[in-house]
Write a structure and sequence with these properties.
The structure is a single chain. The chain has 145 residues and is α/β, with parallel strands linked by helices. The chain has a domain of 93 residues. Helices cover 50% and strands 12% of the residues. The chain has seven helices and five strands, in the order E-H-H-E-H-H-E-H-H-E-H-E. A five-stranded parallel sheet has the order 3-2-1-4-5. The longest helix is centred in the first third of the chain and has 14 residues.
């Protein structure tokens, strides 16, 4: 089984001292190592991860750009990772979801991720923002505890 990961879980998993660091580590260890699932990663999640983890306004000790790139490349090429690549249909599905669910401009990126997950036939998403994804009936939200 594949569990997709949202940016916030990656950030808290990687960044020591992040408030949910331990809960994200436990979740990913349980899902990937213990249960033998695969980690689904979308390109937009890695891009956002690099943006956030290198931001000195967010972290006392942010990653250097080279560190964030090396970490992202290592994850993307990992043996337990499934690359969730958006197809051309994801654009139409994102727009359809935005319209039918009456979502605003601040929901565009989450909706595009949801459409990518759906197109990849993945059912589960690990996120710290469970409420943001509950609106999508095709996603089972998994919140680190």
């Amino acid at each position: 089984m594949i569990i997709c990961v949202d940016t916030d879980v990656l950030v808290h998993w990687v960044m020591d001292g992040a408030p949910q660091h331990e809960s994200c580590r436990r979740l990913l260890n349980r899902e990937i190592v213990e249960k033998g699932n695969q980690l689904g990663v979308a390109p937009q999640v890695l891009h956002e991860f690099i943006h956030i983890c290198t931001d000195p306004r967010r972290f006392e000790s942010p990653l250097l750009m080279d560190q964030a790139i090396v970490w992202s490349r290592s994850l993307w090429d990992g043996k337990d990772v499934v690359r969730l690549l958006p197809s051309a249909s994801v654009i139409h599905r994102t727009l359809e979801l935005l319209k039918t669910l009456r979502l605003g401009r601040k929901r565009i990126l989450d909706t595009a991720l949801a459409a990518t997950i759906e197109a990849s036939d993945v059912k589960r998403l690990a996120t710290l923002n469970g409420r943001d994804f509950e609106v999508f009936p095709f996603i089972e939200v998994v919140v680190p505890a």
